[in-house]
Amino acid sequence: MKMIPYGRQDITDEDVQSVVAVLRSDYLTQGPLVPEFERKISSYCGANFAVAVNSATSALHIACMALGLGPGDWLWTSPVTFVASANCGLYCGASVDFVDIDPKTYNLSPHELEKKLVDAEREGCLPKVVVAVHLAGQSCEMKEIYRLSKIYGFRIIEDASHAIGGSYLSAKIGACKYSDITVFSFHPVKIITTAEGGMAVTNSAELASKMSLLRSHGITRDIDSMINSSDGPWYYEQTSLGYNYRMTELQAALGVTQMNRLDTYVTKRHELANRYVDLFQNQPITLPWQDPNGYSGFHLYIIRLKLNEIKKSHLEIFEYLRAKNISVNLHYIPLYKHPYYSNHGIGSSICFEAESYYAEAISLPMYPTLTFSEQDYVASSLIDCLN
Fold first, then answer.
1. Which of 83, 162, 203, 269 is most buried, judged by most C-beta within 10 A?
2. pTM of the entire predicted model
């Protein structure tokens, strides 16, 4: 049996031809396909603006900068996420803290958020930005988080790196109905890929303009945005300190054709998720709970082991599956456990639900080209180990 990864890209002849066409064109970067990809994403999500960048990490960074996050400010996020969801605050010189997760969705808990906000208001250290991470592709309870933002005055970034193609309360994730900015990732294991790449979408022209400036060194050629008078057609100005976070034409070409199959990919992921439910009937594991108010992108399929009913440890089961050529993974180690965070005292307290999750979670293979026979093998191998 060949190695079955937990996730992988699907590259078709259409994708290859689109990239080859760019290689034979006049533009390898900053050409017409980047804005075309942006239009496809914004139109699909129902957002007014989209800003393409070279990674979701870059998108998170410029989103924080556009919202004015800086030294003396706080960013709060979930502890169960990739490091970029918190690092973006540190890049801006802000302080970072964590809000415990909901025991059913594994997303940031609005109940825990409200409790923490009450304490923070009393202590004078409310967050300026909350990054709501849509773990595995399922939206956070954004309506409740948004309600709290109006009471306590914080801005909201949706880290939807796992979630393009999903929806919440009948709107596509990325519509930004309950947030300032939403960020997507196009890493190869994500729902669609541009090899590397990311996107920030927003309904604010001001935020879109700031992020567009920040992704390209803070340089503008727009006369209306310049401070001084133009010296001629060659003239440009650096008006702020930005970065080289631009997306290439090659990446955008791949993204444009991948978008043609986005809904197909998400439908297949749901089909696989439903099969897992059937395959794991009456097993000592907890399957992913799905909020009826949303439709997950199902980037990941995360199970939790009922260790009190199983004679093997978390590690033993993980290693057993790896030995069977099933490349399971664990998403994620609570961020405050990483040495950089713990050594710098980042994270005010242990998040008990996150700890419980970390002790039990395993991500099983989930991607559109996973065959039913491969999925059957994954399920039977896990069941053999559990029993």
1. 162
2. 0.97
Tokens of 301: 């399929």
Euclidean distance between CA atoms 148 and 127, whole angstroms: 12
Q: 64, 128 in Cβ contact below 8 A? A: no
Decide the pairing of beta strands 301-305 and 285-286: antiparallel
Please, which pLDDT band fits residue 307 given cuts at 50, 70 and 90? very high
